[in-house]
Amino acid sequence: MTRFDRFEGSATYIADEGLREVVNAAVALQRPLLVKGEPGTGKTLLAHAVAETLGRPLIGWHVKSTTKAVDGLYHYDVVQRLNDSRFGDRDVSDIRSYIRLGPLGQAFAADEPTVVLIDEIDKADVEFPNDLLRELDEMAFHIPELDETVRAHHRPVTIVTSNAEKELPDAFLRRCVFHYLSFPDREQMEAIVRVHHPDLDSLLLEAALDRFFGLRKGKNLRKPPSTSELIDWLAVLVHAGLDPDTVRETDPFFGVLLKQEADLLGRHGRKTSV
Amino acid sequence: MIFGHLLLSLRAHGLPVGIGQWRTFLEAMERGLAVGTDELYRIGRALLCRSEADFDRFDLAFAHAFADAELPKDVRDRLAEWLQRRVDPPSGPRVDPGVPDLWKEFLERVREQREEHHGGDRWVGTGGTSPFGHSGRASRGIRVGGPGGGRSAVRVAMERRWENYRTDRTLDVRDLEVALRSLRKLVRDGVYAFDLEQTVKRTCDNAGDIEIVESRERQNQVHLVLLMDAGGSMAPHHDRVSKLFSAAARTKTFKSFTSYSFHNCVYGWLYRDIEQLDRVPTEKVLRGLTPHHRLIFVGDASMAPYELFSPFSWPGQDSLAGIDWLARIRSRCRASVWINPDPRLYWNHPTVDAIGRTFPMFDLSVDGLNRAVRKLRAPV
């Protein structure tokens, strides 16, 4: 395996053995890595950690419901050009100056190897992933306006995240290396929290984790708290200087953990603030 | 050719591995990306599965293909002898044995066990809810009789921890979101106010005089109507069904969402609440149905035959039989399906059969709901 760039997790990102192998397989096979999982399992952070450990710049593409595949490649700003031709003083005969490369385009054109993050691909239209198949396979695309082909000098490491809001097309899935990020268990969670709060009192952490996993175990929450909420909550607990017993016996600052009104209201009878 | 064996096993377990995927997998093996069984398992899963819903099938296939490294021979022979006796296929709900480290526990029990066991919850045997043995009701465990355990990846595979992610399983609470997503397929997409392309085209047509074009928003035309059986036999499903309903009510993408409840079957009245106090004549609901309405019934469809076929079923109801009411609804609205939360096992029942011939019937699982939604989009 020494032949390949190795991903080993980073100082701020805990990756288990399985995840490391899968990331390294995706890098070695030059396939997009599709990461799925509950919110708060660290899908997006994974891309940052991969970029950091491989020492490559990260180019992020945050997909929205209106995003089209071509947006990631390039954008031809016709409106600006039209505007300039009527009111501006720029030279409109140079189409090139109105073409801006999108995140994928930038990664292809870059002089150094990069990591591309296609974040929340399931937010876009159902056909969106299919429109990218050829570009991701060949790592090249054509710009008809310039009659030029942009070809990747270095195949970027592509990391795709999905919250599973929509099913992704089969043809796309077949080309990806797939990894499902499970919600961290207690031990992993402790390690993750330690990264963010290195000086945390162990008893307080113990108490907070008990409450946190207790909440997640109860099935009647509409939105169970996730990792980032736990980390925020701990910061608040530390800031307020609460002791472990208070954390166990009351519901201090539960508004940080529970974001649905119904989940908070369902806890009446317990003291909810301090 | 051990990998060929794996491919056959995967396909036999219903995992449709494509040639391209398989070649990538072989390439990964050739390049030495997986040196041990554990890596083989993890990398194989990453390359050959397309979703966490496939993991359980992969686990089964993997355990099947690689469970050749076995227990010590004397232990195996002893177990084989104990487990030879055939038992009836298990019935009743599956039980989680609640053992965190199955393999460790298994080795300990095998060491302690001195005799045959059938139907208990602890020892290696047949039937019962022990996680070890075969033909039992434990939801995870180590199957003994047939392939033995062996390498750690195989053990992990046998724990079937991904079983909850299969899409053909009946829904549990976690699957609710997934189910609703497939309901959302009913919605027509596309809310555009400012139409850039048309603006540019018109502007060019106008020789550069800018003309702004706004295209009309497209409204979602679908009215969703959910009709839920609140009868006694639905009690075990009440939790899942009512959660499905309250979540559907929160989905604001339909032009309208209405829910009614009924008892066993639809008769002259439908109820707006589960307590069945606020009622409307079924006749009126029927008249209000348009071609844009989609009906989803949720019910176990099993009742005493007279409750479905007799015109004089419930006191105070008018004299049409339940099955005739259903037929009227069906003929008025072809975009209608019946979701049955009972396992298919129980569908062999005269009233389920009759209702299944009136409405296309699907089970309350992610797969079932997906197929139901497809049916609703193209009703015949």
Model description:
The complex is a heterodimer of chains A (274) and B (380). Chain A has helices spanning 17-29, 43-54, 69-73, 78-86, 103-109, 128-131, 133-138, 170-175, 186-196, 202-217, 227-240, 244-249, 261-265; strands at 33-37, 58-62, 74-76, 99-101, 115-119, 140-143, 148-151, 157-162, 177-181. With 274 residues, chain A is α/β, with parallel strands linked by helices. Chain A has a five-stranded parallel sheet, sandwiched between helices. Chain A has a two-stranded antiparallel sheet with strand order 3-4. A two-stranded antiparallel sheet of chain A has the order 6-7. In chain A, a hairpin with a 4-residue loop joins strand 6 (140-143) and strand 7 (148-151). Chain B is α/β, with parallel strands linked by helices. In chain B, 40% of the residues lie in helices and 11% in strands. In chain B, the strands form three sheets. A five-stranded parallel sheet of chain B has the order 5-4-8-9-10. A three-stranded parallel sheet of chain B has the order 1-2-3. In chain B, strand 4 (223-229), helix 10 and strand 5 (256-262) form a beta-alpha-beta unit. Chain B starts with a helix and ends with a helix. Chain A binds chain B through residues 1, 17-18, 21-22, 24-26, 28-29, 31, 36, 78-79, 82, 85-86, 125, 164-167, 170, 173-180, 219, and chain B through 18, 20-21, 24, 27-28, 31-34, 38-39, 42-43, 45-47, 49-52, 55, 165, 173, 178, 181, 189, 196, 199-200, 203, 208, 210.
